[in-house]
Amino acid sequence: MELLEYQAKELFGMVDIPILPSQTIRDSRKIKQLQIPYPVVLKSQVRSGGRGKVGGIKFVANTIDAIAAARTIFNLSILGEYPEVILAEAHYNAEREFFLAIVLDYDLQCPVLLGSAYGGMNVDSLLTNLQQVVIDGSFSLFYARRLAVSMGLSGQLISSVSEIIAKMYQLFQEKDLELIEINPLGVNTKGELMALDGKITISDHALSRQPIIETLNLSKYQKQYNLERAGWHWLDWHNKSGKVATVCNSFDLALLTWDLLSQNKINPACGVVIDDNLTNQEDGSSLYSEKLKQILEDLAAIKGLKVILINIWSTETRSQEIIQTVDQYIQSLEESNLAAQAENIGHHSDSSKRDKSTKSKVKETLKPMPKFILRLLKVELTDLKTDDTIYLSSSLEESISKAIAMVKSS
Amino acid sequence: MNFDSGRQHYYSLDDLSTYTQTSEIYSPYCLPANYSNFMNWSSPNKVIIQGITESEAAFYAVQMKAYGTDVVAGVSSGQGGTTVGDIPVFDLVEQVLEVTDRIDTSLIFVSPYQVLDAAIEAIATGISRVIILTPNVPPLDTIRLIKYAQVNNTLLLGPGSEGIMIPEQVWLGKLQPQFYQPGKVGLITTSRDLSYEVAAELNQAKIGQSMVISLGNDRIIGSKLPQWLSILNEDPHTEAIVSIGKTIQETEEIVAYCKHLGSDKPIVCYTAGLKTPQERTFQDAVTIISNHLSASIPAVNQERSIISKLKKAGIKIAKRPSEIPPMLTEMFNSKVS
Questions:
Q1: CA–CA gap between residue A26 and residue A88 (Å, rounded)
Q2: Are the C-beta atoms of B26 and B150 separated by less than 8 Å?
Q3: Which of A39, A325, A336, B62 is spaced 20 to 30 Å from A217 by Cα?
Q4: In whole angstroms, how large is the CA radius of gyration of chain B?
Q5: What is the DSSP letter of A205?
Q6: Size of the A and B interface in Cβ pairs below 8 Å
Q7: What ranges do the domains of chain B cover?
Q8: How far apart are the C-alpha atoms of A307 and A407, rounded to whole Å?
């Protein structure tokens, strides 16, 4: 999980990495009670980078300016995200700006120190001058000095920058981080250092053992991220013009199914992955059906969807359960449509000269009936009769071909 | 416990050591120094299960035992003296050695935050093969564990591994044996379900599997693809290798392996998800930083570049599981003629 700048700075403060006096603001009117002397910098607290270029950072010299600027920032979306918080911070005169980071390297399987003497907004010169030191084993201060020297630093800066890196490393280890970055680290004329902006990513797999998560004021997005998943979830992939939805019991099967459809020039509309915990079966059975039914209802609400392809590799019992659930769902859909039609006819006999608006209303109550393809194992034992609405097979290739045929004929 | 038995010195063959780098023992392109730990899974193999009282572990423990796996004990702190099925449970790993002369393999099912401790306990007791079935272990824990395993010459599989399967002989972990059949193709995979799909195609074509290895789903894992490629390359029962993956990472590892060592046996590579609009994840520190600073790395479709890389390295690429059997048959036939 990525932390916002002000949250990252809270962590910096814990290990005495120097940060400017600052205050968070959630309401532009509250800016009157600002404790920091002007001039002040107001910074939009959003996840995405590049906020400076689009007006997410403003310098203000007095309260009147500040209120107006804060209003503007709260109403400015940066890559689709509005800030919940603005960070008001004292101004700092940096003579030079450095870049420092520690990143978990998945190739090397260890943390890597990164540094550039050209920090700040100019990414090109930052990256051309990027230096790295690999920490293969336990950390010692000399690794940080090695980085400082390779960055071209000299004199007092070698030890002062190394101290900052050591503190970053302490956070990295203690808080289970994947990434910690200070950019820029400001250096003033006296050679003093200040972390002016920062970024921290906590490893997703360690979140619940980090009590810091409880004390940080999480944003709406972060809270959502932190939520327990409720047994199933949507994939991040969508196609508005897609006509097929996939339901699989693992991400990997979803990859495979999506691939096979795409290879045949069929772009799926969306995909769902349903959790499949084989052993949690103490009364788990009915829960599974319930979940699947919920998924089917959600999918039915998607406009233009013609085919639902269920590809679930599981036990025979589970397969039977899926067949039953889908069968019941189709029946309930048919019944409600029949009822709606009956009502429709009833209306007609009432008065044969019904106007068009009522007709279209009736049409709306008729739910579209998608076609179902079930790819399940050992399905030969079932007594389900397959027809135009439902197709059953244990062969993946057959199921895919059938889905393609159904989409093309619709 | 003696780790020096077996064919320890295999890796120092001249042609292999040319490619060993700083860490000679764990150079990814040669046979690992603890080679013997990787082999001989079908010889007598005494197994313990750490975290056996967790419901998933108990479920698999009982089935594995019934299948013939020599599960000598379970370990679960505070549950010592109880049983799971007819498997005795102990509080500590070392207590198991009071009822058996040795332990060859530990299967670890404990919760993610307890994995590091449980694995160190197993290694400290002298167990030379540790398979971690638990997924989503905090990466910094795994890094520490890998170091500890290296120092002690322990084979580490996982975290997030589904285990190892030799059809009709060895069942260690969560791969369901009914989906595999004995045969001559070795599968290395990061995905249980994709290995089922590929195995189903191989079974239908009567080719079967010699061994199935699930590396693990976590981003940082112990033993990796190149090490297992070299093991299967040596394995007398394996005639061809299929690597089943879902990230570009795996294909890059295969290309690097073939460039450095070449393989005596045909390798087929199947990567799922090349057509899906997923975000690419980056592996190395500099790319991770560059990407988030500038976000300028274009999100191009990886398919074409992957395929051309593999072709250059002489590796066959299957676009879908059903393509694999005819591909292998053709390779086997051309070898004979």
A1: 11
A2: yes
A3: A39
A4: 20
A5: G
A6: 132
A7: 8-157, 163-336
A8: 7
pLDDT per residue over B12-49, tens digit each? 333 333 333 333 344 566 677 777 777 778 777 999 99
pTM surpassing 0.80? yes
* Between A159 and B306, residue with greater pLDDT: A159
Q: What is the β-pairing status of strands B87-90 and B83-84?
A: antiparallel
Q: How far is the C-alpha of A394 from the C-alpha of A373, rounded, in Å?
A: 11
Which class does domain A96-222 fall in?
alpha beta
Using CA coordinates, name the residue in chain A closest to B140.
A176
pLDDT at A13: 97
Structure tokens at B38: 């990787």
C-alpha–C-alpha distance, residues B308 and B303, integer Å: 9
Q: Tell me the domain boundaries of chain A.
A: 21-90, 96-222, 232-347+357-409
**Do A205 and B138 meet the contact criterion of CB atoms below 8 Å apart?**
yes
Q: Which of B273, B277, B283 sits opposite A106 (nearest CB)?
A: B283
Q: Compare CB distances from A205 to B56, B137, B146 and report the shortest one's residue.
A: B137
Q: Tell me: domain A21-90, CATH 3.30.1490.20, correct?
A: yes
**Could you check whether the bond before residue A184 is cis, i.e. omega within 30 degrees of 0?**
yes
Contact indicator for B69, B47 with CB cutoff of 8 Å: yes
* CB of B235 closer than 8 Å to CB of B211: yes
Q: Does domain B8-157 have CATH number 3.40.50.720?
A: yes
Mean pLDDT of chain A: 87
Burial B287-313 (b: 16+ CB within 10 A, else e): ebbbebbeeeeeeeebeeebbebbeeb
Cα–Cα distance between A52 and A44 in angstroms, integer?
Answer: 9
pLDDT tens digits, residue range A216-237?
888 887 877 655 455 678 888 8
CB contact under 8 A, A252 and B194: yes
Instruction: Report whether B184 contacts B239 (CB < 8 A).
Output: yes
Residue-level pLDDT at A219: 84
Cis before A37? omega within 30: no
Q: Cβ of A253 and B112 within 8 Å?
A: no
Number of other CB atoms surrounding residue A208 within 10 Å:
12
Q: Which residue has the tokens 């079930």?
A: A374
Domain B163-336: assigned CATH number: 3.40.50.261
A103 burial (CB, 10 Å; 0-12 / 13-18 / 19+) is buried
Judged against a pLDDT cut of 90, whether residue A158 lies above it is answered with: yes
Contacting B residues, span 45-64, partner chain A, CB-CB under 8 Å: 55-56, 59
> Tokens 């272990």 belong to which residue?
B137
Residues of B in contact with A256 (CB under 8 A): 193-194, 197, 272-273, 320-321
CATH classification number, A232-347+357-409, choose in 3.40.50.261, 2.30.40.10, 3.40.630.30, 3.20.20.80: 3.40.50.261
Judge whether B107 and B76 are in contact, CB under 8 Å.
no
Taking the CA of residue B192 and the nearest CA in chain A, the distance in Å comes to: 8
Q: How far apart are CA B283 and CA B281, in angstroms?
A: 7
